[in-house]
Amino acid sequence: MLLNRETSGKRWRIRPDGLGKVTGRLAYLTDMSAAGMLYGRVLRSPHPHALILSICTEKALQLEGVHAVLTHLDVPGLNRYGIAHQDQPVFCENKVRYVGDAVAAVAAETAELAEYALSLIEVDYELLPIVDDAEQALLQDAPLLHPQGNVLHRSQFNRGQLGSGFAACAHIVEETYFTPRQMHTYMETEGGLFVPEEDGRLTVYSPTQHGFMDRLQLSRIAAMKQERIRIVSSPIGGSFGGKDELNVQPYGALLALKTNRPVKLHHSRWESVRAGLKRHPMKISMKTGTDASGRLLAHQVRIIADTGAYATLGAEVLNFAVEHVLGPYRYDHVEVDGYSVYTNNGMSGEFRGFGGNQAIFALEGQLDRLAEKLGMNPWELRRINMRMPDDPGPFGQPIVVTEGAMQVWNAAEASGLWQERGMPDRAEEREPWIKVGIGSAFTMHGGGLGVGIPDPAGGRLSLAADGRIEAIFGYEEFGQGLLATLELMLIEQFGLAESDIRMIIGDTDLVPDSGSTTASRATSMMWKTLQNLKAPFTSQMLERAAKLLGKTADVLVMGAGGIYEAEGVSMLLTYKELAEAEGEPISCSTAFQFPTSDTPRTGAHFLYTYAAVVVKVEINQLTGRVKVLDQYHAVAAGPVMNPQGFLGQIEGSSSMALGFAVTEDAVMQQGQYMTKNLDTYLVPTIAEHCGTVTVEPIEHLPQGDSYGPRGIGEVGSVTLAPAIAAAIHQAVGIRVTKLPIEPELLQMAFAFAGEAVSER
């Protein structure tokens, strides 16, 4: 069934935060202000690599209206941060490693004064050699960016005997693929308001994807107990992974504590570019071979990921990429060797897809090239090599059994768009330099953080004093529709009305630690939480109602507005009346971990979402531009909790993937950004979204499956780029190896074709 308003019926609802967003009335965290507020600004290094010989702040401190100037000497606790590896300085002490490195921060009466104060801070640098290429950073004579070397992390996986595997191959393809440094480009850049409270606590209003992790890190930096810091983290104007790590929080917090005044700090677009995270650029070299029938025998991969100056989650992204370059296919012999490498380039980190986008672009490219050598339909090649339901995961680890791989393969093959691929080309209807092609791609995408990484989940249901049923989770709403999905689950699973519900998220003073709102996990874990809580919470509610009504609990049910007799239509008791009755508060909690495989392999996944994409593109060989005309997405992720949200996630992530494929690249030279704003860094606009996006969810799960809906927040961003590359080849015979697809490549091919025609 295709997703749309008609097929979804009453489940197609206005989002709880929808009206505020479309009218502009919703206040984001960076819209906030406070009485007596100061403005914070951060002084960042102009150099990608240099020693700091001295820092002089006297002139800035003497400026009237400047209330604080901070350097590394003013950090009371740990002068480092990072979710997994605390290696990034809050303020650099003696060396800068990229152009976003923070050296000092100021708080002043106005934003203009704060900027002027930055210009008065004198820093004496001694320039050092720049390492701006990850592969060169691996050379023995490369300058060392960290005492332990230039390799943050190495990840390997081997199975079988690679040499004998390739010796048995009838067809071998070797290729190297390059993917770009993509920006998150959220509408709300990093920022927030930092308020020292009268009781000595600190309240932080700043976007994040895991408030409790922010609280932990800030407690280390500020040398405060975690309980004395409150993180309020929703609503957020976009994140996509980019606000998962600390950004402005250390500076706003330290300035507020130093001045004992509220401090607002909000990045300009340029500061967001220079200091914010990006998708890891990767170079992926692959050698893949089959026997004469097309069965995959051997697969060798080398990954070099540019993680930038500091770790963030570079090691974890690499682990994910190593897992997903194996993907949904079976091989006898495998060797993967991956490196996450420090450079003096901009910071790379977590980004929607988490290394899967780069991996699948390369892997699906290999399958298409092998199909051409075999003279085989590329979709058929995928079928004969796909993992079967009972097969283990890419690392040989146990995974949840589903038929998702074959389900999406069948759905894509049966789609009208794929069937159109075999129809006669109607070239007479187009200009001769316009070519049209259809391509496809296929993936499995792991959900959750994986083995060996703390991945807590849980939540709480309570009956509030005013009769509202409160659903309390430690998740964040950053545009993905989490609140809308939670509301619909509460309505459908508990029989509630919208007016019965109060959802509380994103405030560490009020919510349990439900884990990070990342890794396609939030909907799955909210669903599981409600499954755990449904029986005990319902039981408490009905037992209390039964006492008040003089009935037995087994004849009562919860419904819209209150308690009903199971066979009746009239309400017997409102939730407000129930809340006002004597007795202990009604509240139920659950806490558990995201499910993982029984394997020692760090990062290995247990739950997977499967997806297939078919795309139709138009290539203008005069301009070299690629236009996506139509998309079809089949997604096997279990029951759809929110049809509108499901469609929005796939449409939104495919838009992000379109930029990854055809326009977006945060170009750097010698450690400096060449693309500093959205006039040169080109994201897809409404003009590029001219075609249809058809989404077909496959909800079937095997009987007895207890894991419910799988995450779909990332998978829509993974397969579009390789499908576009396949469509380009079908249209004009060009194999794409580098993203974004350069117009010059397609223009050049057109020119060569013209020369060949003229010679004949």
Give keywords.
single chain; 760 residues; alpha+beta; seven-stranded mixed β-sheet; five-stranded mixed β-sheet; 20 helices; globular; disordered C terminus
Can you lay out the helices and strands and say which pair or pack?
Elements: H1 5-8, H2 18-23, E1 38-44, E2 50-56, H3 58-61, E3 66-70, E4 80-81, E5 88-89, E6 95-96, E7 102-108, H4 111-120, E8 122-127, H5 134-137, E9 151-159, H6 162-167, E10 171-179, E11 191-196, E12 202-205, H7 211-222, E13 229-232, H8 249-259, E14 263-266, H9 269-275, E15 282-290, E16 296-308, H10 314-324, E17 333-342, H11 356-374, H12 378-385, H13 404-414, H14 416-420, E18 434-447, E19 456-463, E20 469-472, H15 482-494, E21 501-504, H16 522-549, E22 556-559, E23 562-565, E24 571-574, H17 575-580, E25 587-593, E26 607-620, E27 625-636, H18 643-662, E28 668-669, E29 672-673, E30 692-698, H19 720-732, H20 743-759
Parallel strand pairs: 1-14, 12-13, 16-17, 20-21, 27-30
Antiparallel strand pairs: 1-7, 2-6, 2-8, 3-7, 4-5, 9-17, 10-15, 11-12, 11-14, 15-16, 18-26, 19-20, 19-25, 22-23, 23-24, 26-27, 28-29
Helix pairs in contact: 7-8, 10-11, 11-19, 15-16, 18-19
